Amino acid sequence: MLNEFKDKAILVTGGTGSIGSEIVRQLLQYEPRTVRVYSRDETKQFELLNSLDNDRRVNLLIGDIRDKDRLNLAMENIQIVFHAAALKHVFSCERNPFEAVKTNVYGTQNVIDCALANKVEKVVGVSTDKAADPTNVLGCTKLLAEKIMLASYFYKGFKKTNLSLVRFGNVLFSRGSVIPLFIEQIKKGGPITITDERMVRFVMSTKEAVKLIFKATNLTSQNEIFILKMPAVRLVDLAQALINIYAPKFGVDKNKISFKIIGRKKGERINEKLLGNDEAEYVWETDDMFVITPFGNNDISENIKAAYPNIKKVELKEYGTLDQEKLSVKQIEDLLSKGGLPEFNQNFCV
User: 139 and 231 in contact (C-beta within 8 Å)?
Assistant: First the structure.
């Protein structure tokens, strides 16, 4: 990683979001020359810079990926781009579908165009499990974002820009996720609102997500999609684990906290997938990830072979939460603690 990022100029779109800000924090450990944070919210930028002790390597740029001219300026003399900007909430995208298209699809095309124009070395896009056999607006726009990033191979000519993607599930404690909601409900003594008691999700910590993104940056040759193997959890078990952890901290009797089933929101599905049916024939497997090869290619890059000498082709119909063993409540508690619990205080709010 030191060789990958040392003395490099790096741009992070959506750099104040849950994933983007963690990318920025971890990048600074590898001695980059500069890290440009490109996002729309000046308050979040101010807070991020303060949390980084005003590190002079961090440059804040107000801008929207929908604004191609501004994005092009932000990408001048940049060598690596992490594309984390997106509209990501299922319910919001269902209510505002074309806004999701303008950000997740048009915005991604702008990132591609500007990266090619500025001869960026590598672009790593952040995707989601919602893109595998999508059933909602978010998944459809993220799948299309994946497709247009991969298809850039066919028209980039002799430009050496390498574009790849990382796909993962729900990120624990990310902004707008269900965990902060559950914790606030625990603080009030309940009830915990569950949309459907059958609902299962893939989960990972923010640090794990960024670790995968950096690994993909190091391994990619051209147009791969990297997918981390993640544990699956039932939402009711996740809620119970949070009750066990946080109820005592808030002075709440955990045995008196009840669950309330409120029904699924439009666009939500019971089980998630990391691999869709049409992708299975192009998948390679390591101990900790799947790699989707581009355009039906049956080979894998030398970079990945060197890193994973035991990598093998795998025959799958799909890979989703439905067929995976679910973590127990105790295992979820351990996972949450390992991922880094937010600091507790009486005015807790994520």
Answer: no
DSSP letters for 264-293: PPTT--SS-EEE-GGGGGGEEE-SSEEEEP
Does residue 130 carry a catalytic annotation? yes
Helix (H) or strand (E) segment spanning residue 126: strand 122-128
Instruction: Output DSSP code: residue 123.
Output: E
How far, in Å, are 12, 267, 322 from residue 262 at the CA level? 37, 15, 22
CA distances from 343 to 36, 51, 285, 346 (A): 28, 15, 37, 10
Quick count: other Cβ atoms within 10 Å of Cβ 264? 13
Over residues 216-233, mean pLDDT: 89
Question: Does the pLDDT value for residue 344 go beyond 50?
Answer: no
Bridging pattern class, strands 319-320 and 273-275: antiparallel
Task: Give the CA radius of gyration of the chain.
Answer: 20
Residue 292 sits at the vertex; the CA angle it makes with 287 and 298, to the nearest 5 degrees, is: 100
Distance CA 285, CA 203 (A): 19
3-state helix, strand, coil in the chain (%, to 5): 45, 20, 35
Q: Which of 316, 314, 167 is nearest to 230 (CA)?
A: 167
Other CB atoms within a 10 A radius of the CB of residue 54 amount to 8
Residue of 8, 44, 130, 215 marked catalytic: 130
Locate 177 and state its tokens: 């996720």
Each residue of 236-265: pLDDT tens digit? 999 999 999 999 999 999 999 999 999 988
Q: How confident is the model at residue 300 (pLDDT cuts 50, 70, 90)?
A: confident
pLDDT at 293: 85
Q: Are 238 and 332 in contact (CB under 8 A)?
A: yes
Full-model pTM: 0.91
Domains in the chain with CATH codes: 2-168+206-228+273-319 (3.40.50.720)
